[in-house]
Amino acid sequence: MSSRPLLELEDVKAYYRQVIGPWKRIVRAVDGVSLKIYEREIVGIVGESGCGKSTLANVMMMNIRPPLMLIGGSIKLYTSKGIVNLEKYDRSYIKSSIWGKEIAMVPQSALNALMPTLKIKQIVYDAVRSHIPDIKMEKVVELIRNRFRELGLPEIAIDMYPFELSGGMRQRAVIAISTLLNPRLLVVDEPTSALDVVTQKAVIKTFKDVFDREIIKSLVFITHDIATVRQIATRIIVMYAGKIVEDSPVDDIINKPLHPYSEGLIGSVLTPEEEVKKRGIKYIPGQPPDLSNPPPGCRFHPRCPFAMDICRREEPPLIQVESGRFVSCWLYMKK
Ligand SMILES: Nc1ncnc2c1ncn2[C@@H]1O[C@H](COP(=O)(O)OP(=O)(O)OP(=O)(O)O)[C@@H](O)[C@H]1O
Q1: Distance from residue 52's CA to the centre of ligand 1 (Å)
Q2: Model pTM?
Q3: How far away, in angstroms, is 13 Cα from ligand 1 center?
Q4: How far is the C-alpha of 263 from the C-alpha of 280, rounded, in Å?
Q5: Is pLDDT at 270 greater than 70 in this prediction?
Q6: 227 vs 331 pLDDT, higher one
Q7: Rounded to the nearest 5°, which phi and psi values hold at 64?
Q8: By percentage, how much of the chain surpasses pLDDT 90?
Q9: Based on CB atoms within 10 Å of each CB, which residue in 17, 136, 183, 287 is the most buried?
Q10: What pLDDT, on a 0 to 100 scale, did the predictor assign at position 114?
Q11: Please, what's the b/e burial string for 207-217 (b: 16 or more CB within 10 A of its CB; e: otherwise)?
Q12: Average of pLDDT values for 249-267?
């Protein structure tokens, strides 16, 4: 990992406005998140369903549409031409100048979102034209052919319809397509959840290839599946109820998680793994809070076996406790 940042979020708050019949409520899906993604790293963002991972992915892309609202904070992208504060630009500028070229995303639904009536090359042509309006089909086909060849995908797939490809091949094609213009940062949301274990490995290998061949500089991999992400990530960020609770290098967090929630999460899903098995299965009692009415203080305190008075009253800041390790927990604050 280099120390050159690619993306920096500072105190970002992104909330949904929900209207259910006569009731209105605000869901605080991303609530005061600060993080940096550096060049040449693969960052896994993990947490239970509903903790705000997909919302954070959309915030990183500045893909914010109602009912999601950006309430505050800054999203700084370090591009090849300088720093761009994404929150200051409108959607059309971001779409034409940033997406695909500087930062690209494979959303959760990508596997099924490919238009079934169009061949892969036509889908790619339409997508690339939204970034480069005057590009010719021949040029796009040449780009896809080269990229498919580079990533070991069969070139024949370019002339096929999405339904003619297997799930794994479709996901690998999506990776090839989304990195066609060599974006510096690729953000992927649950890219392997719908796939069987063997196919997951092939998809992970494709991510490794785009990273190792420096087609992209860095990768953000969002998932609830720690077992998969640990095969590829260099750093893990754990989210709980719209906030970051821990940010640590992958081996450190697996061997010695700092936050009680990280320990519970890793212990509940990675128990076949030697280093985790020694600590035993950790069960986290209770449910994550309703994000329209989160508890005061630390949001994890109602489920935390170590909760103290201060945890019920005051929100813990995210502090550095060791080199490269950050945690948001009062247990680590010096008295
Ligand atoms: N379009 C929406 N309108 C209102 N609330 C939403 C919307 N999308 C998500 N939410 C709420 O925002 C919170 C965070 O959701 P988000 O999808 O970001 O979590 P997640 O960690 O990605 O979950 P999953 O793993 O299930 O996709 C949840 O409480 C969810 O119900």
Answers
A1: 6
A2: 0.93
A3: 14
A4: 10
A5: no
A6: 331
A7: -120, 115
A8: 68
A9: 183
A10: 76
A11: bebbbeeebbb
A12: 93
- Which residue's CA is the nearest one to ligand 1's atom 28? 50
Cα distance between residue 90 and residue 239, in whole Å: 28
C-alpha triplet 246, 250, 251: angle, nearest 5°: 120
| Ligand 1 centroid distance, CA of 246 (Å) | 20
DSSP3 helix / strand / coil % (the chain, rounded to 5)? 35, 25, 40
Residues 96-149 pLDDT 10s: 889 999 999 988 776 667 788 889 999 889 888 888 888 999 999 999 999 999
Inform me whether the pLDDT recorded for 294 exceeds 60.
yes
pLDDT of residue 197: 85
Cα of 107 from ligand 1 centre, angstroms: 13
Distance from Cα 58 to the centre of ligand 1, integer Å: 11
pLDDT value, residue 312: 96
CA angle 95–101–106, rounded 5-degree value: 75
Q: Which residues line ligand 1 (CB under 6 A)?
A: 16, 18, 27, 29, 47, 49-55, 67, 224, 291
Q: Are 260 and 83 in contact (CB under 8 A)?
A: no
* Domains, in order of start, for the chain: 5-102+183-332 (3.40.50.300)
* The pLDDT of residue 333: 85
Q: Could you report the predicted ipTM of this complex, rounded to two decimals?
A: 0.97
Atom of ligand 1 minimally distant from the CA of 108: 27
How far apart CA 260 and CA 241 sit, in angstroms, is 14
Q: How far apart are CA 293 and CA 302, in angstroms?
A: 13
Which amino acid appears at position 113 of this protein? A
pLDDT of res. 277: 67
Closest CA to 288 of 65, 5, 28, 77: 28
189-204 CB burial, b ≥16 within 10 A, e <16? bbbbeebeeebbebbb
pLDDT, tens digit (0-9, with 9 covering 90-100), for 297-325: 999 999 999 999 999 999 999 999 999 99
